[in-house]
Amino acid sequence: MSDKQPGNNMRSLDRAIDVLEVLEDAPRGLRLTEIARRAGLHVATTLRILNALEARGRVERDETHYRAGVGLLFGAHAYLTTSPLVAAARPVLQDLASETGLTSSVFVRTGYSRAVIARVEGSNPLRYELPIGERLPLHLGAGKILAAHLSDADRDELLSRVAPFVTAGGREMTGEDFTAELDEIRGSGIAVSTDERIIGGRSVAAAVHDRDGAVTAAVQVAGTDESVSEDRLKALAITVRNAADQLSRRL
Amino acid sequence: MSDKQPGNNMRSLDRAIDVLEVLEDAPRGLRLTEIARRAGLHVATTLRILNALEARGRVERDETHYRAGVGLLFGAHAYLTTSPLVAAARPVLQDLASETGLTSSVFVRTGYSRAVIARVEGSNPLRYELPIGERLPLHLGAGKILAAHLSDADRDELLSRVAPFVTAGGREMTGEDFTAELDEIRGSGIAVSTDERIIGGRSVAAAVHDRDGAVTAAVQVAGTDESVSEDRLKALAITVRNAADQLSRRL
DNA sequence: TCTCTGCTTTCATTCTATGAAATGTTCTGT
DNA sequence: ACAGAACATTTCATAGAATGAAAGCAGAGA
C-alpha cells in the first residue's frame, strides 16, 4: 500500500492506517487474510491491529468479515465542521449551482486520490446518496486539474501507479499522453472531461490556490454530456474559473 | 481519555486514537500542548503521532493549530456504504418521517457516546447542516434508551463519567435518579426526553435489537415540544416502537 | 534585551510490536 | 461423513520501535 518512506517512525500506527485504507476501499467486508494480503502485512500483525481498532469502534466485524466502524464517523464530522476550506466552499458552490443548474463540487487531494468535501446538487439531482468522502481517482475528471499541479516527483509517482489506463469511454492513455494533457491543462487553467470516469458524464474543473499560490482544491461542475453541451463549455470555463478564484480569495 | 485497559496491546495505536478523539471533540483547531494535555500524553509522543497522522492526511495543521484532516472522510464514507444497519435504517426512517412528519434518526452507541448514522428530516427541516457523525451524549435524549441497556459495569462507568449532571432545561439529576429512570425506560421500552439536550426540544426513542437480542441501535423521532405535543406521545411511542421492531427484523 | 512559553530534536532505555510456528477452527469438495 | 485445505488465533523469543527526560530553539511579550 504505502511505500516505506524512510524517516517515518511510528510503524505500527502507519500500518494501522494501511489496514484502514484497505477497509475504506472495499465495497464490502473483507476477511482477515485478505486484508493482510492487500495491506502487505503479516496476518498476526493485521489481526492485532484489527482488534485494537475494533476495541475503539474504528472497525466492526461479524463472524468472518471486517468492515469500517461507526467510530470513523466522528473524524469526518470534525473535518467537515472545522475545515476552513469546507466553510468557504459552501456559499461558492451554492452560487455556482444556481447559476449553472449543474451539480457543483469541491475536491481536495489526499495522497494519490481526491475526495469530495462539499457538493450542491444542480436542478436535476441524480442521486440521493451523499458522496462526501468518496475516494476518487486523481487522473480522471476533475482530478486532472489537481494532477496538473503536482510536483514532478509526485506526478511521476502517480503515473507509475495508474498509467497506462483506459477511460470509461474507452480512450487509451499512455503516460506521455497524460503528461501532455496535464501540461495543456496547466496552461489553460481548466480541465474538461468527457466520458472519463462515467460514460455520458462531462465536467469542467478549475484549480483553487491558497495564499501561497499552492493548488489545494478544485471546483467542478458536472452533468450529462447533454446538460454540459459543447457550446456551453466556453462560458462554463469562465464561470467555473471565477468560482475557483472566488474561493481562493476566501482562504 | 481512555483508561488503560489491561490486556490491550498496541499502545502507540491506542494513543493515536486518543489523539484523534481529542481532535474530533474540538470545535476548532488545537495547539500541540493542549492536545497532549487533553490526551494525557507526553508532548513529544503527541508530536510524533500528529506527524504520522498528518503524513497520511488524517490530520491537518496550519502554523500553530492542528485539526481533523480530509483523510478522515474516507472512513465515514466506507462505514455509511458498507454497514448493514445503515442500509436497513434508511427505508424505515423514510416511512417514520413521512408518517409522523418529524425528523427521524437512528443512533448507534460507541464507547460512552452515540452517533447519528442515518436521518430523514421531517416536514420542517430545521437546519441544513447534516449532523451525521456528530458525537452526542449517552445520558441525554435518545441516548438514554441505549444507556438503559448497558451492562452494569458499563452503566457504572457511564455514571462515573457524567453524573451528577444538569439537563439543558435545568433539571438536576444524581446518579440514583438516573439509574432509576433507566430502569423505568427499560421496563417501558421507550425513552421520552424533554429539554434535555436542547431547550424546547422533545424526542421519543425506542431500542433496536440484533438477532441475539442485544441492543445495537436506537430509533428516534424528534421535534419541538409543540410538534411533539403531550397528547401525541402515546401514539408516537407505539409508532416509534414499531419502527424500531421493523428495523430489528431487517438485521 | 530578557523571560516565558511552546515546539522540536536528541538519545539511552524499556517493553511493545513483530513474525515464525504451533494450535485450533471452519470451509470445501468428494 | 470424511479428508484436506484454508483460515483464524495463540504463543514466544527477539529486534527495534516507541518512549520520556532533557537540551536546544524559536517566537511572543514585557
TrEMBL record, chains A, B:
The record ties this protein, via PROSITE patterns, to: HTH_ICLR (PS51077), ICLR_ED (PS51078)
Q: Name one Pfam family in it.
A: IclR_C
- GO BP term, example: negative regulation of DNA-templated transcription
Print the keywords alphabetically: DNA-binding, Transcription, Transcription regulation
| InterPro entries, A to Z | GAF-like_dom_sf, HTH_MetabolicPath_Reg, Tscrpt_reg_IclR_C, Tscrpt_reg_IclR_N, WH-like_DNA-bd_sf, WH_DNA-bd_sf
Highest taxon of the lineage: Bacteria
Q: Where is the IclR-ED domain?
A: 71-251
Record's keyword annotation contains Plastid: no
Q: What is this protein called?
A: IclR family transcriptional regulator
Q: Which organism is it from?
A: Knoellia koreensis
Q: What is the lineage of its organism?
A: Bacteria, Bacillati, Actinomycetota, Actinomycetes, Micrococcales
